[in-house]
């Protein structure tokens, strides 16, 4: 029985590795969705220049910041709800 785990067994190394791998998968999926959404919204499809225009760069910056902020808020809420139901405690 662990004081920090409130009586729950501590996760094994394999469980910790699985948790980190899952977190990396979530981050990679979020990045992929953000890239797809923000590129479609901000980048001119005619590709007239080799570099991003100032407007495109600003749009991408704002879009990615908002996307990440929303993702973070949703993740925090899901963690709170999971903790209230007793999921994920002790990791």
UniProtKB/TrEMBL annotation:
Gene Ontology terms, MF aspect: metal ion binding
Keywords: Chaperone, Disulfide bond, Membrane, Metal-binding, Mitochondrion, Mitochondrion inner membrane, Protein transport, Translocation, Transport, Zinc
Superkingdom of this protein's organism: Eukaryota
Primary subcellular site in the record, as a coarse category: mitochondrion
Leader peptide range in chain numbering: none
InterPro entries: Tim10-like, Tim10-like_dom_sf
Subcellular location: Mitochondrion inner membrane
Membrane topology: Peripheral membrane protein
The UniProt record lists the keyword Membrane: yes
Pfam families: zf-Tim10_DDP (PF02953)
The Tim10-like domain, residue ranges: 18-80
GO biological process: protein insertion into mitochondrial inner membrane; protein transport
GO CC aspect terms: mitochondrial inner membrane
Assembly, per entry: Heterohexamer.
Function: Mitochondrial intermembrane chaperone that participates in the import and insertion of some multi-pass transmembrane proteins into the mitochondrial inner membrane. Also required for the transfer of beta-barrel precursors from the TOM complex to the sorting and assembly machinery (SAM complex) of the outer membrane. Acts as a chaperone-like protein that protects the hydrophobic precursors from aggregation and guide them through the mitochondrial intermembrane space.
Record text about domains: The twin CX3C motif contains 4 conserved Cys residues that form 2 disulfide bonds in the mitochondrial intermembrane space.
Family the UniProt entry places it in: Belongs to the small Tim family.
Name this polypeptide is given: Mitochondrial import inner membrane translocase subunit
Organism: Thermothelomyces thermophilus (strain ATCC 42464 / BCRC 31852 / DSM 1799)
């Amino acid at each position: 029985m662990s004081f920090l785990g409130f009586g729950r067994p501590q996760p094994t190394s394999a469980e910790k590795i699985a948790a980190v791998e899952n977190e990396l998968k979530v981050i990679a999926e979020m990045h992929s969705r953000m890239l797809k959404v923000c590129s479609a919204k901000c980048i001119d499809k005619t590709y007239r220049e080799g570099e991003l225009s100032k407007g495109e760069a600003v749009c991408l910056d704002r879009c990615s910041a908002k996307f990440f902020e929303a993702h973070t808020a949703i993740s925090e809420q899901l963690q709170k709800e999971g903790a209230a139901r007793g999921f994920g405690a002790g990791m």
